[in-house]
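for the record, two folds in this file. i put them one after another cuz i was lazy. first one right below, seq on top, C-alpha cells after. the second one comes after a little note so u can tell where it starts
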Amino acid sequence: MQTVFSILLGLAMLATLGVMFAGMFGLARGDGNGARSNRLMRWRVILQGVSLALFVALMLVMRG
C-alpha cells in the first residue's frame, strides 16, 4: 500500500508542476487570456490539495 501511495503522490506532484509551468509559460507569452489563467490556477490548487492529502495518507500508512 505504501508503494501505491508513493506512486500516486509522485504523479500528483508532477501534474501540479506541469500545470504551474503551463501557467508560467502563458504569462511569459503575454496571452492575456484571463479565463485560461483562472482555470489553470483552479487546477493547481486542486492538485496541490490532492498531493497534500496523499502525503498525509502516506504518512499514516508508514506510521501504522
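(here's the note) second protein begins now
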Amino acid sequence: MKELKEWIKSIIIAIILALIIRSFIMESFIVDGSSMQPTLANHQRVLVNKISYRFREPKRGEIIVFPLPNDENRILIKRVIGLPGDKVEIIDGRLFLNDEEVREDYILFKSDNGFGPVVVPEDKVFVLGDNRSKSIDSRNSQVGFIDIEKIRGKAFLRYWPLSKFTYFN
C-alpha cells in the first residue's frame, strides 16, 4: 500500500511539473505547411523557448511561434524581419531593411513581387516565411504586424526527424 501511494505521488508530481514546463518554459510545436522551407519542412517538430521574451525583445532573424491574429487556435511559425521603428520593403524580390539590402542565406527563392515600404509600429514585429511565395506572413492583412506580447516563444531546436536535428540561435 505504501508503495502504491509513492507511485501515485510521483505521477502527480510529474504531471504538475510537465504542466508548468509546458505553460511557462518550453513547448513542442509541429510545423504545418511549407512556408518556412528550406529551414523547416512540413511535419517537422521544434521546441520553443517560452521564457526568453519575458526578459528581452525578439531579435531579427529569430524564428518565432505566434497565433494568427484573428484565429488564436491557428499557430504560425515565421522569421522576425523587422523590429519596432524599422522600415521594411521588398523590391524585385530583394529585402530592404532601413533602406539597406538584407542578405538572406536561408531562403531558396526570392519573392516575385514587391512590398511596402512599411514602418513597424511600436510593440510589434514584422515577420516573413523563408519560402516567400508560399507564406502567409506580415505582408498579408490576415497576419499583419505581430504584437510582441502575443508571441508564444522562440524556436530553438528542431528535434524531429532526428536526421535533421538542429539548434537555432
